[in-house]
Design brief:
Order of helices and strands: HEHEHEHHHEE
CATH topology of the largest domain: Beta-carbonic Anhydrase, Chain A
Radius of gyration: 20 Å
Strand content: 5-15%
CATH superfamily of the largest domain: Carbonic anhydrase
Helix content: 25-40%
Strand order of the largest sheet: 2-1-3-4-5
Distance between the termini: 62 Å
Bound molecules: zinc ion
Number of strands: 5
Largest sheet: 5 strands, mixed
Number of helices: 6
């Protein structure tokens, strides 16, 4: 039988480990040694979809969680993955995207047009105000927005991009998954699955006309 004194000592030690974990570098990883790249959509419950506890603070901490519009590979996603993989003990990457994504719901060219209509000079945008060295070529803005044509295709491509990136070591486990918003269930990305017929995996299935700016091949 453990005494209350022993239990309290363990609890204090665990709290100290939690608080100072990042100072331990690769020896103080998150619980599952995991980095998750996920869409920011409020309808996608990352913890439920992956069966982990990433958002829960104390007692959770399973993953470093990076969310952006679409859950796509961007320069900041690469930056974050590079840090957690190379310096903080992370050994696995999961990419999580979903049907009915806002990034399927409009054409990137139209979004660019709308911003231009508001008088914004999209050819001269500080992509990162603290890093003026990071610039877009003229005419690349619509592509930079990253609207998708097909979520399964994009998910597969994002996994490939991470797999082939020089800042991500070859022995890191990387997988991509699709959360079906309509059915609240997870599936592997699949370009031919019959199940796609009843979900919203493409911009066309969400009523978008025309081809997206050519970011996804
Ligand atoms: Zn989304």
């Amino acid at each position: 039988m453990t005494t209350l004194k022993e239990q309290l000592e363990q609890r204090v030690a665990a709290t100290t480990e939690w608080e100072t974990r990042r100072q331990a570098g690769a020896n103080g990883p998150n619980m599952a040694h995991l980095w998750v790249l996920a869409c920011m959509d409020e309808r996608m419950p990352v913890d439920e979809a992956l069966g982990i506890r990433a958002d829960t603070p104390v007692g959770g901490g399973d993953a470093h969680l990076f969310r952006n519009a679409g859950g796509i590979v961007t320069d900041d996603a690469i930056r974050s993955a590079m840090l957690t993989i190379n310096f903080f003990g992370t050994r696995e990457i999961v990419v999580l995207q979903h049907t009915g994504c806002g990034m399927l719901s409009a054409n990137g060219h139209d979004l660019e047009k709308a911003l231009r209509g508001q008088g914004i000079d999209v050819d001269n945008i500080p992509i990162d105000p603290s890093l003026p060295e990071l610039t877009l070529d003229k005419g690349a803005f619509a592509k930079w927005i990253g609207m998708m044509e097909d979520v399964d295709k994009t998910c597969i491509q994002c996994v490939d991009q991470l797999r082939n990136h020089p800042l991500i070591p070859d022995d890191i486990t990387i997988s991509g998954w699709i959360w079906e918003t309509e059915f609240r269930r997870l599936r592997a990305p699949d370009l031919n699955a019959p199940t796609r017929a009843v979900s919203q995996p493409t911009a066309a299935s969400m009523g978008v006309k025309g081809k997206q700016p050519p970011r996804w091949k």
